[in-house]
Design brief:
Layout (H helix, E strand, L loop, with lengths): L6 E5 L4 H12 L3 E6 L3 H12 L5 E5 L7 H6 L5 E4 L14 H29 L2 E6 L14 H21 L4 E8 L9 H10 L8 H13 L7 E4 L6
Parallel strand pairs: 1-2, 1-4, 2-3, 4-5, 5-6, 6-7
Helix pairs in contact: 1-2, 1-7, 4-5
The structure holds NADP nicotinamide-adenine-dinucleotide phosphate.
The site of NADP nicotinamide-adenine-dinucleotide phosphate has 27 residues, from α1.
Length: about 240
């Protein structure tokens, strides 16, 4: 109801959690600007699915390398920005290479940060904006990670961005929040990871993109939630 008629840019909106959010936003009657990585097949399937709800939608395939230019050209004035894409890396600190650090920080921290720097002035001027970022499992506070330090460091850093946006945006109807999911099975999850997710999930059932999308929609609808880090993880203890 609150989101109807708004323009939403969803980064990584053709697969996994991002696709769940794309479908949920389509049901809310928004105009959608959907980004995907490399799969034309997934993009076509997503566009077909959202158009069945009668909403306007267009797609952009772009492998993220830190350049935000194509995204600004694709959707210059979004009301809502969801950055779902965020590659995972399981590597111990002493095994993590310079290239791993570069890739993790560009995709999971610098790219969302640069997008926000570019879109925030317009949102402030229009007195409306909703930004939703994705943290990792249990990356809501500073702590050590033995197997995922580069990924988790970048994800934890997103909190600084969200709080900084909240400081600026609070008086202008602009919010930025972070959702930290637990273990989610998606079409990208291999069998080994699925069985790890089952074993580690407190209820024995991994989360689904649809469950995450429902919570994402509540966050995007709320004018009061700002600078928050929200864990949706069944209380998992990794
Ligand atoms: N899944 C989990 O258990 C879990 C747990 C905690 C946090 N998270 C976080 O939740 C968010 C969503 O995760 P997810 O598992 O749904 O999948 P994801 O792989 O982060 O996102 C999939 C989307 O990103 C696109 N994409 C993949 N590689 C790309 C690249 N190099 N450049 C640009 N776009 C690319 C995909 O398009 P193509 O299909 O065309 O490649 C698809 O649209 C992420 O930030 C992740 O870190 C996930």
């Amino acid at each position: 109801m609150y989101l109807s008629g708004k323009r939403a840019l969803i980064i990584g909106g053709t697969g996994g959690i991002g696709r769940g959010i794309t479908i949920a936003l389509a049901q809310s009657g928004m105009e959608l600007f959907i980004h995907g990585g490399t799969s034309q097949e997934r993009m076509t399937a997503t566009l077909t699915a959202v158009q069945s709800f009668g909403v306007k939608a267009q797609g952009l395939l772009n492998r993220i390398d830190g350049d935000i230019g194509p995204f600004i050209a694709f959707c210059p004035e979004p009301d809502i920005v969801v950055v779902a894409h965020g590659p995972f890396l399981r590597k111990r600190l002493v095994e993590t290479t310079t290239e791993d650090w570069r890739f993790m920080t560009i995709n999971n921290l610098a790219f969302p940060g640069a997008l926000i720097s570019a879109f925030l002035p317009g949102m402030v001027a229009r007195k409306y904006g909703r930004i939703l970022l994705f943290g990792g499992t249990d990356t809501g506070a500073i702590r050590g990670f033995s197997t995922t330090p580069a990924y988790s460091a970048a994800k934890t850093g997103l909190a600084v961005i969200a709080r900084s946006v909240a400081q600026i945006g609070a008086c202008f109807g602009v919010t930025c929040n972070i959702l930290c999911p637990g273990l989610v099975d998606t079409e990208y999850t291999d069998e080994e990871t699925k069985s790890y997710n089952r074993a580690k999930s407190p209820l024995g059932i991994p989360l689904s993109p649809e469950i995450i999308a429902k919570t994402a929609l509540h966050i995007l609808e709320s004018p009061a939630l700002n600078g928050a880090i929200i864990q949706i993880d069944d209380g998992i203890n990794l």
